[in-house]
Amino acid sequence: MSMKNSLLLLAFIAIASAQDQYANTATLANPNPTGSFAPQHSPAFPKINTKIASSLRVTAVPTGAVPTGALPRAAPNLAGYPVAWATPPTDSAEVQAVINTIDWSLVPKAAVHGGNSQTGPSMSGYPSSDPYCDWSYNLCNVPKVKYLPPDIYYCPSPDTWGLTYDDGPLNPQSSGDPYAEPNLYNFLAAHNQKATLFYIGSNVLGYPQAAQRAFQDGHILCVHTWSHPPMTTLTNDKVVAELYWTLKVIKETTGVTPRCWRPPYGDVDDRVRSIAWQMGMRTILWDWDSNDWNIKGPDGGSLSSSTVDGYFSKWIADAKKTNHGHIVLEHELSDTTVNVAEKWLPQIQKAFKVVPATECFNISQPYWESQYRYP
């Protein structure tokens, strides 16, 4: 596992430990509420090389045979991006332009939490009344302000499994790495399965060919920030930068602008939600966590493989026992998480209707480009 993945694992452990006491406190919210929400718009993306995405020749929802096999060795030339795996600077003209489009009167004045990716957000001094719907505090998923919609975190229809994978695209960790993409994507193609993929911008920058393949395969691409920080520990401007550069690298690589995002570790409050919403994205979380990232290995982890297998076994056994479906948190983070995904998907498909998380809510246009209308 690379140093980058090791740091992610440590951060997952720190934040998950802080959240264990809240594991059973979530309540269902109406996923399609009526109401008047704050205006949304997609940021403008100057200095994009449009030839990169146009070379894919994908101008509508991909249909027909799904591409498989090896990815092209030559990567598109993506220039002008921040350093990978570091919080992007906020003083660039592009980020400042987005900052100036946001209605800051609609961004709640929640304090920036202390903490970082190694410790998780600090709740020290946060009011017990949870005035800003802080997910890391008590799994809150219905904003306290009425101009933001509830988070998407479960599937309304029973027997439905919202399939999601975080932290991709999985870059090669060494020459000939058999677990890097397109391993998982080829597996999904072989099983005629689409998923919602929450992409880290730095990973797209490092392996744009994989993002292009996923898009060509018909998976739904969403934002998972540039460097995977707990978002409530960032200032407003840094939140904008994390989201903007991830949106841009996906746009330049594939030609589409996501309307969905997932905060790393689920760490979000109404301040961060409002910024993401005004940048064109709705928050998608989960109600079942596979904890695949926490399997014991050379770089850490505290769970045995059998423990994680037990989660999947129980979910399959209980498939008919709940009155709604579920959005499940899985990862394309390492060889371990890819093995878990490939081991369990065939059995999940037998017990559930497995769909991308966005499809749970009949979201037919997950991108700002209107020509991409999904079933």
Automatic annotation (TrEMBL):
Q: Which cofactor does it need?
A: Co(2+)
Q: What Gene Ontology terms describe what this protein does at the molecular function level?
A: chitin deacetylase activity; metal ion binding
| GO annotation terms (biological process) | cell wall organization; chitin catabolic process; fungal-type cell wall biogenesis; polysaccharide catabolic process
Q: Which SUPFAM superfamilies match?
A: Glycoside hydrolase/deacetylase (SSF88713)
Domain spans labelled NodB homology: 159-357
Location of the protein in the cell: Cell membrane; Secreted, Cell wall
Which EC numbers characterise this protein's activity in its record? 3.5.1.41
Q: Quote a single Gene Ontology cellular component term.
A: plasma membrane
Q: Which domain of life is it from?
A: Eukaryota
Keywords of the record, alphabetical order, are:
Carbohydrate metabolism, Cell membrane, Cell wall, Cell wall biogenesis/degradation, Chitin degradation, Cobalt, Glycoprotein, GPI-anchor, Hydrolase, Lipoprotein, Membrane, Metal-binding, Polysaccharide degradation, Secreted, Signal
Q: Where is the signal peptide, in residue numbers? A: 1-18
Tell me which stretches of the chain form a coiled coil: none
UniProt entry tagged with the keyword Lyase: no
- Reactions it catalyzes: [(1->4)-N-acetyl-beta-D-glucosaminyl](n) + n H2O = chitosan + n acetate
The family database entries (InterPro entries) matched by this protein are listed as: Glyco_hydro/deAcase_b/a-brl, NODB_dom, Polysacc_deacetylase_ArnD
What is this enzyme's class at the first EC digit?
hydrolase
Q: What's this protein's family per the entry?
A: Belongs to the polysaccharide deacetylase family.
The protein depicted here goes by the name chitin deacetylase
Species per Swiss-Prot/TrEMBL record: Bifiguratus adelaidae
